[in-house]
Specification:
The structure is a homodimer of 335-residue chains.
Chain A (H helix, E strand, L loop, with lengths): L3 E7 L3 E8 L4 E8 L6 H19 L5 E8 L2 E2 L5 E3 L13 H8 L3 E5 H12 L8 E6 L3 E7 L2 E3 L30 H4 L1 H13 L8 H8 L6 H9 L3 H25 L3 E5 L7 H10 L6 H4 L3 E4 L6 H26 L1
Helix pairs in contact in A: 3-11, 5-6, 5-8, 7-8, 8-9
Chain lengths: 335, 335
Amino acid sequence: MEQLAIGIDLGGTNLKGIIMSREGEGRHLTRVPTEAKKGGQKVLENILTLVDKIVQKEGSKDNIIGVGIGTPGFVDRDGTIIGGAENLPGWKGMQIYEPIQQQFGLPATAGNDVTVTALAEWRFGAGKGFKNIVCLALGTGIGGGIVANDLLYKGSHGMAGELGHICVETNGLQCNCGQKGCVERYASATGIVELAIRVCQELDVKQQTPFAHEVLRKPQNLTSKIVYDYVKRNDPVACRVNELVCEKLARAVGIIVNALSPDRIILGGGVMMAGQVIIDTVSRYVPMFCWPEVWKRCDLAIAQLGENAGVLGAAGLVFEDFTDRRILEDRRDDV
Amino acid sequence: MEQLAIGIDLGGTNLKGIIMSREGEGRHLTRVPTEAKKGGQKVLENILTLVDKIVQKEGSKDNIIGVGIGTPGFVDRDGTIIGGAENLPGWKGMQIYEPIQQQFGLPATAGNDVTVTALAEWRFGAGKGFKNIVCLALGTGIGGGIVANDLLYKGSHGMAGELGHICVETNGLQCNCGQKGCVERYASATGIVELAIRVCQELDVKQQTPFAHEVLRKPQNLTSKIVYDYVKRNDPVACRVNELVCEKLARAVGIIVNALSPDRIILGGGVMMAGQVIIDTVSRYVPMFCWPEVWKRCDLAIAQLGENAGVLGAAGLVFEDFTDRRILEDRRDDV
């Protein structure tokens, strides 16, 4: 019997849903508005509506083994949102497994939206065939996900993978997490823009380049894409920003390499539109920040799945939690 | 049928061996000299001699399912020592599974000596009953071990868990790993002693306490035990050293909490003879260095198994690798 899973990706603007086979073949990709501002209950209703639409399109629930959800924030084992989803008012405290079970008779599972992209990259993308991988999503902030021993590692309460808050500068820039010097203050899209502006503002007039002129004229328009467009043109100031960004990122990568010794670390998110230059620059710095012996057996790669990683990972979670992982847990209970 | 495993703990001076049941009951604890200076081949011969002695004592190989070895350094999947065992000349490059298989007809497995203590604490000690734990062994250096999703996490080439080299001070003290500011430069036995000497040397005469007098009189005699004896007597200078040590340790713990969100972080090794004062002081600092929401669901505890953790963990590895883990991998191969 073909086994199918429904995956839902909860974004700030849209909910995205798909139905997927174990091999990663997806169909019925569907979007509905999240309506985040209307509160947690409304978001949940929209999720139920989306699941219903997908079931309708499929025409039958017979082969569907469960529903997986990727959501901002932390999801505890029982399906309660326990924090970390600040841009979804009223989402914290919601119980999301029961309503799905009740309305569709399907078991539900969920994970952090970035964490599940790691599962997707491992099953279908840049991490395929490896046993241990780590993903870093360089977006507005930096999120992370870990696959360890061929299983997604969620941590004890769905909170693992907060790799954007690895401290890379003692007493560095203040972060909204309360710490100082978190890597996301330097190497997220936001961090890169702020760093570039600071670098340009500190230049003498003689040192200014076309990049610096553009930044100083309209700093509010700067994006990480613009920074890396100039890096590609070899603008010296933009290249210096890239070095600063990648040195900080390499400090975090070095800690991950020493702690987890994965086969591969995958960099994704909007910033990675810049591509290979970031991989190359970070790779140059990493040996300074970990055991070179360990780093020799690891590499950096660009994420392959793009914007559908979330929805594929959410569906992948269903297979992970309701078939693969269960085998081991059943065995453990016998011991 | 009762299943038994042989565990071997490779120390710089002695090899320790035991035979253990799945429930952790050990017998025939035996020691032979490591003879590290005579080179890798001699160490391997001594391991074979030790296994033979234990088999003789047991009187039968019938119920023994394998041999597990905890060793300094990194062991690749095929049983080759690929580095990190500097105090065992000629150990790097040795193949340790084949000779055991040939001489005894038993499969062998191995792991880093600190990594396997994490397995022991999780199966039989302070980590029992949890799904995800991290151990930090505060000795001459700092080693680490991770249990993730109810499985020991060795990393891709037996190299995971180098948690002593988490950077906690950007451009801090030089470490022998090549990095600067590694936590083991501040919170290992060696690091604590060096830190205490520096603190005492910087004091004005008026600020000197009985602890400072003792340190400055014979700095070469100082041990972390002496530091913590004075902490217990509330010596202000010793207490200040404790604060500095624990603040640094808390920075590493914070990174581990954010990255792995374990149920518990277990502190062991010689330094932890000091006991609860370190747990309490570190716990006070950790919320400054991670998401408090994640830390709320984690705690710090003292390792319970003492000096036999290594040999119990090495035997535990046999059950882990030849029964529990195999179930999952067989299933994966079918997919």
